[in-house]
Fold this protein.
Amino acid sequence: MTLQQQIIEELKVVPSINAQDEIRRSIDFLKDYAKTYSFVKGFVLGISGGQDSTLVGKLAQLAVDELNAEVGEQHYNFYAVRLPYGVQFDEADCNDALAFIKPSVTYTVNIKPAVDASVQSLQTAGITISDFTKGNEKARERMKVQFSIAATKSAVVLGSDHAAEAVTGFFTKFGDGAADLMPIWRLTKRQGKQLLQALDCPPHLYEKTPTADLEEEKPAQPDEESLGVSYEALDDYLEGKGVSTEAQAKIEGHFLRSAHKRHLPITVFDDFWRK
C-alpha cells in the first residue's frame, strides 16, 4: 500500500460523493449522538464566516430542527458563537453565514481581552511568545469559550475540520482540533462546497479565499500560502488522483509531521511516532 492509499484509508475519503447522501449522513450522525446520550441538548460551534464552519453550522441546525420536530418541542438548540479578536475583517461574511444557518441561539464573545491578558501574564513571567504562538492562543481561547458554553447548556462542541485540513495538520492542537464531534471529517474541500451548493448557500461564502487569520503579522494570509500547496492539489491527492511530485512531497511531509495532532495524548503503549 502506498502512503497515498494509507492516508486516503485513514481519513476515510472517497473519490466522489452524492451531496444529498452526505448531508443526510452528517445530520443523522449528529441526531444519533444526541439520542444516544440523554444529557445532550444541543450543539455549539464557532462561526467564522468561512466555508467549513458555515457548512457544519447549517448541518447542526438542520439536525436540531429535525430532533425538535420529532419530540414536538424546543428541546434541542444549536448555539452559534461569534468569536472575534477585536474587530473581524470579514464581519459581513460572518453575518451572512448566520443568516444562512438561522441558528437557534447566537452569542458573541470577544476573545481579545482574554488572549491579551494571557500574553501579558506570560510576559510578566519572562516569556515572550511569537506572533505564530499568539495565533494558537487565539484558537485555543475560542475553543475554551465554546466548551464553557457547552457546559452551561448541556451541549457538545462541534468541529469543522475536514480531510484537507486533517492530512496537513492545519489546525491548532487542542484548539480547533479539540471538538467533541467532527461531522465533515471525511470530506475534501471541494466536496464540502458540493454540500453547501446543495444546501443553497450563498456562493461567496464557499468561493472566498480560505484563511485562518490568526497571525497579526500576516493578516488574512491564505491557507494555501501557509501550506505551500493548493486545496485543488490536496483534494486531488485525497481523492486518489495524480498530483505533481512537488505537491505529493509537500502533502506527505505535512501528514507525517502532524501525526501527533490526529492522535489522542501519546502514552507508553503508542509507537506510531517512532516510524
The mean pLDDT is 95. The chain is about 50% helix and 5% strand.
